[in-house]
Specification:
With 489 residues, the protein is an all-beta fold. It is built from one helix and 37 strands. It folds into two domains: 327 residues, Tachylectin-2, Chain A (5 Propeller); 143 residues, Sandwich (Jelly Rolls). The longest helix is centred in the first third of the chain and has 13 residues. Keywords: Carbohydrate metabolism, Cytoplasm, Glycosidase, Hydrolase.
Length: 489
């Protein structure tokens, strides 16, 4: 490829694309963040700055391949009204010429500071990594300041990326995903007192010595007195009820000793059990909420997304608020999403049935709340008829606690099932968000979440509840039509 377009020309293309009604195909999303063209990748630089939420993300504006990684930006005050996606950072310097890779943001003395990985490759494909500093003004304009961590520590390969900054006391810290020379995934910690010069503290000592060949996109933060490390390991062995995607994203909770860097922690737990989730980033807003956004996609699995024929691929997840209960991270959609509720079309209480059809749903953009009590049922299924001769389903076994998401009967896109375990209970709570081609399911008040892309051939809105082996009680059911977020120049 020749010279890149200017950021101004890319952003003019964005504006023109939103004005073009032909861009609104069947799978165009209403309230998940996506770009009008190109490939959307990891969320980056998430922070609350000057009264607005800044959501950066990796973006290839030139195609649906993992190349030419820029940073894009949307801003919002209320998660209903957003600025249009805007290209703000381009790989056009010697230290990032093969991609502006993932990074993070933090407000320092009233200024938004950014740290990101500059990816560089030579003619033979040999990789170099530079951790680069930049600043962002209130209009979203970025000024590059070049590498501040220019060298890879001894004992590690050039797979050294994705700096996530945070502050503890008066000290800035930065965790970086790494691979050691034995080709094992690790996380490295740096510190700084001024954000300009960074000191290598060392490798965070976890009990996972053989746990994949690379750990990407780490986030470190405190929540309710616990230290939490989120990361995305690559190379874990697939099992029946976990590690079912090509790569995983999850967390460990415990206590990190900043003197010894020893992390006393619990078992690694995946954050999302759906088909499409990776590289989440966490941040705290001015209300003290710990928030998280993930990438609703997976590396190396682009062929199964039919939006490629429209010149775009992937999106971000909804924003989730994190909390801890009994040593487990719970995830719930932030309260602001209630403002997208347009019309309450289902409102049921205490209905006993073997089968129930939600026949008032006439949209592919809705929120469903369902609280079910087992009476003498053995299994329950939510079946979504998404088009002629195609459907997806969510199944729950009351006796074993096994949950299954099945998209094997879809005509477009990747198929398959995902199986995971909940605690066996006589009650199941489901909060589901359907958004044309994106589905997020929150179970048991956020104990488990499953995010998946689905691509129905045509509009069909049938939702049916089916009980096996006996009846269930719909203790409560509500469905709202949801309006889309608004993008403004």
């Amino acid at each position: 490829m020749g010279e890149f377009k200017s950021l101004e020309d890319i952003n003019l293309d964005v504006v023109n694309s939103y004005k073009n009604s032909s861009n609104n195909d069947l799978w165009k999303l209403n309230y998940h963040i996506e770009a009008p063209f190109g490939l959307v990748n990891d969320p980056n630089g998430l922070c609350y700055y000057d009264g607005e939420y800044y959501i950066f993300f990796q973006w290839n504006p030139y195609g649906c391949e993992h190349k030419f990684k820029h940073w894009a930006l949307v801003k919002t005050k209320d998660f209903v009204n957003f600025t249009m996606p805007k290209a703000v950072l381009a790989p056009n310097d010697w230290y990032d010429k093969n991609g502006c890779y993932s990074g993070s943001g933090i407000v320092v003395d009233g200024k938004l500071e950014l740290l990101y990985t500059g990816n560089v490759k030579d003619d033979k494909g040999n990789r170099e990594s530079y951790q680069c500093r930049a600043t962002c003004d209130k209009e979203g304009n970025i000024t590059k300041l070049g590498p501040v961590i220019p060298e890879i520590p001894k004992g590690y390969t050039a797979h050294f990326r994705d700096p996530k900054v945070y502050k503890k006391g008066d000290v800035f810290y930065c965790v970086i995903g790494a691979q050691n020379e034995e080709l094992k995934g690790r996380v490295i910690l740096y510190s700084s007192e001024d954000f300009k010069s960074w000191k290598l503290e060392g490798e965070i000592g976890t009990k996972y010595k053989e746990f994949g060949y690379m750990w990407e996109c780490p986030s470190a933060f405190e929540l309710d007195g616990n230290d939490i490390l989120v990361f995305s390991p690559q190379g874990l062995e697939k099992e029946e009820f976990k590690n079912q995607n090509i790569y995983q994203s999850g967390y460990i909770i415990g206590n990190l000793n900043y003197d010894t860097l020893n992390f006393d922690h619990c078992e690694f737990k995946e954050l999302d059990m759906g088909f499409d989730f990776y590289a989440p980033q966490c941040f705290k807003d001015d209300n003290g909420r710990n928030l998280m956004i993930g990438w609703m996609g997976l590396p190396e699995e682009e062929d199964g997304h039919p939006t490629r024929k429209f010149g775009r691929i992937h999106c971000l997840t909804m924003v989730r608020e994190l909390s801890i209960r009994e040593g487990v991270l719970y995830q719930r959609p932030i309260e602001e999403f209630k403002n997208l509720r347009k019309e309450l079309i289902v409102d049921l209480q205490n209905v006993q049935c073997n089968e129930y059809k939600f026949d008032s749903i006439r949209s592919n953009s809705y929120e469903l709340l369902l609280d079910l009590n087992r009476i003498d049922s053995s299994k329950v299924e939510l079946k979504f008829a998404l088009g002629k001769d195609e459907h997806m389903s969510f199944k729950y076994d009351f006796e074993s606690g096994i949950a299954i998401i099945d998209r094997s009967n879809m005509l477009e896109g990747d198929k398959g099932i995902r199986k995971f375990k909940l605690l066996p209970k006589d009650n199941i709570k489901i909060q589901m968000f359907m958004d044309t081609s994106a589905c997020e399911i929150y179970l048991q008040d956020g104990l488990e979440v499953a995010s998946s892309r689905i691509y129905p051939k045509e509009d069909s809105f049938e939702v049916k509840l089916i009980s096996e082996g006996g009846s269930v009680e719909i203790h409560k059911a509500k469905v709202w039509n949801l309006e889309g977020v608004k993008y403004n120049e």
